[in-house]
Amino acid sequence: MTTDSPLYDVLVIGGGVNGTGIAMDAAGRGLKVCLCEMKDLASATSSNSSKLVHGGLRYLEHHELGLVKKALTERELLLQSAPHIMWPLRFRLPHRPHLRPAWMIRAGLFLYDHLARRKRLPGSCAICFNADSPLQAHITKGFEYSDAWVDDARLVVLCAIAAREQGAEIQTRTRCIKARRIEGLWHLTLQNTDTGERRQCRSRALVNAAGPWASSLFADTMAMPSPRQLRLVKGSHILVPRLHDGPEAYILQNEDRRIVFVLPYQEHFSLIGTTDVDYEGDPAEVAIDDAEVAYLCNLVNGYFKRQVSPGDLVWRYSGVRPLIDNADGDAQGASRDYSFELDAPGGEPPLLSVFGGKLTTYRLLADAATSTLCRFFPEAGPPWTHTAVLPGGNFSTQARLAKALRFHYSWLPDVLLQRFVRSYGTLCHRFLQGCEQLDDMGEAFGDHLYRKEVDYLIEHEWATTVDDILWRRTKLGLELQNDEQERLQHYLQAQGLSI
Questions:
Q1: In this structure, is residue 62 part of a structural domain?
Q2: Cα–Cα distance, 116 to 111 (Å, whole number)
Q3: 215-258 per-position pLDDT tens digit
Q4: Number of other residues whose CB lies within 10 A of the CB of residue 308
Q5: Same domain membership, residue 302 and residue 244
Q6: What is the pLDDT of residue 98?
Q7: Which domain holds residue 357?
Q8: From the CB of residue 334, how many other CB atoms can be counted at a distance below 10 Å?
Q9: Which of 446, 460, 433, 445 is nearest to 494 (CA)?
């Protein structure tokens, strides 16, 4: 490696929510940052979540008051920072007295309401279910409280866009295959996972934010032992036709003390999850099994009038949560908190490794991680993300943004307008500007996706494949028919993409 190879202050390995959050934060403090991700942004754990910004009501039962307080505080900040991809959601908890007594639930909800300052969301209350309820007739009482929904993959993409706007380089489909300390710097070899092409670079600091691969990265890339092992836990979800018509989510208790969410998903579906199963093997190969499908169906059927079976599934997915390994207890009791390991022996360039974490606390984690790194960069600026707005989030309410878009683009169909509000916020002007009718959006890949949007995603959001566009950027994977997806595939291939 020569002195001509690029030199960064910080190189981040991992394009999930923690990696992109750190890249955004560090770049905003004036550091020269590069992030490499071996696949697409949010292609693993960060796009396979329950898609919630929440304090974690059930974590109170495991006495993790500190984690819940942090998460509840962050919930308020995140709702302010990204009103396009996050919004309030009310949760209904049917009461089953033999599982948890009412006093215990009331006490938990009281803590949930008051552990952190709450300005945007209403508090909890007791409710009654009548004959019109989607729940079975014997369930007559329950509770209701607030949390929030998030488009998880778009959160990651927006953090990457913000990092780039602050000067960071974002290199997707790029694996770090070798990292060595040489003469006071990290010397790194990066490989394009599509073409096999390699390039060299150097960095003054290295961040390991590889999620489920954070422990194995030490042996595979740095030729050194990992200071900490992760507990890999599989969480699986299923999607079925909508179980109820209301806008609320449901949180269901089970005999094994676990809870499962039933969440409204788009217009016509219910998202059900999650499971907690210890996992061994390659995180890239994780998949839901028949036992998990049966578990989720059986639990839902114990509550709802509408019954579901494995044959009703329209989609399923699994993710691997990289949890801190406490070497005991069951998977559902493993902590969702995070920790860092800083390695900087004898003045050598620092290595900061991130273990654990959850979507809701990604900004706090990134702030703490970047502050730790900044000990080695006295010229770096102060923390800034606690007041930052993510790209596209510079508007007050979704309703007001929709009204403004309707004024500027009166030809825009309602279904597109609403999706653009909740996916791009004000970023949609970048591909709508100059269009005066729907035909100006270019080729239609089905009723809901047009070439202008696809070109924007390719040019500005690192999309190169059909999955990148349909499952992570737009959530249209359930909308486009096979022939429409094939047409999109052919278009991407004509652009030299979708390798």
A1: no
A2: 9
A3: 999 999 999 999 988 999 999 999 999 999 999 999 999 999 89
A4: 20
A5: yes
A6: 87
A7: 7-45+154-229+336-387
A8: 20
A9: 445
One domain, residues 238 and 162: no
Estimate to the nearest angstrom the gap between the alpha carbon of 111 and the chain centroid: 26
69 half-sphere exposure, CB direction, 13 A CA radius: 8
pLDDT digits (tens, 9 = 90+) for 95-122: 998 889 999 999 999 999 999 999 899 9
CATH number of the domain within which 258 lies: 3.30.9.10
- Whether 215 and 341 share a structural domain: yes
Residue 315: C-alpha distances to residues 220, 227, 240, 270, 471 (Å): 34, 38, 7, 10, 11
Identify whether residues 281 and 376 lie together within a single domain: no
Residue 402 to residue 400: CA distance in whole angstroms: 5
Among 368, 387, 406, residue at a domain's last position: 387
**Statement to judge: residues 477 and 423 lie in one domain:** yes
CATH number assigned to the domain comprising residue 187: 3.50.50.60
**Domain shared by 121 and 93, yes or no:** yes
